[in-house]
Amino acid sequence: MTEPDIRSLIMGNPVARAFAITGDAWTQLILREAFYGVRRFGVWRERLGTPRSVLTDRLQRLVAAGLLKQVQVDTGTRTEYRLTEMGLDMFGVAIMQGQWEKAWARSPLQERYAIAFFDRETGRRLTPAVLTRPHGVEIKVNQVDWKPGPGLTVIPAPTSRRRRSTPIETDRPIIDRSTDIMGDYWSWALLSAAYFRLRRFDEIHAALGVATNILADRLNRLVLQGVLEKRPYQTAPVRFEYRLTEAGRALYPIVLAMHGWSQRWLVEPDQAPLTLIDRTSGDAITPVVCDLGSGEPLDPRHIRWEVEAALQEGPPAGAGPDGR
User: How many CA within 13 A on the CB side of residue 30?
Assistant: First the structure.
């Protein structure tokens, strides 16, 4: 196989394929509500305040992609949208996104409350982590290598979608402020470039092929959000490079979780665009979000969650996702 170009690595890897489907804020919030048991158009509208046309578009996209299915209820007079197995498997990504948000981008609600996960049958508290495989070991960023595969081709960027213009206040202390970072396809393309150690504007632009005004906007946003930092590398004239901060590097478990989801649902086994490799053993890594203690994959149908006090007080326990 010939050496892949950097554009293919960034725009054709499994994570890029996944974010072409789920990489916008409204989609992520719709999925979050689905994990809480929301199934009806009107309830999503009430919970999120999503414009009707936007909600219709995102639900249709999720059905077309296979994450949701339409079900006729009440003798065919009402339509519900229910998570498929593919959609349920996105739960692990949502959990890791929430874990990052709790540590690095807390909303005012998260300053007061936190979510804890428990096994429905045993009541045992669960610790989410991305493992190399079910019952494997936790993946460490410095232990991961990669190799290109036969399916590595550039995936076209998704068509333009309406960005969420203002924050939506909800009583869900999970996946809220993080959508300002993770809810944009080009922001994730920039983060992917950063993980491939592209740091300068011109080389990032050449790799992504995105318009310069969009690139400048997303770089500025990621700097303001504390995910990237600017460092001067030239003084006359002053030019900067963009490097991952600690918060930016902490996004890696979400990237791994999304890679694993994409590997399971979007990639043919013999056509993997890119495979993750354990540097120590040389074995292929198939990332999956599991309970760190038992090594069991986290299935929303077998988990309940409770809202706990992060400081001094807390609300009553909340119901977990029903996954049905």
Answer: 33
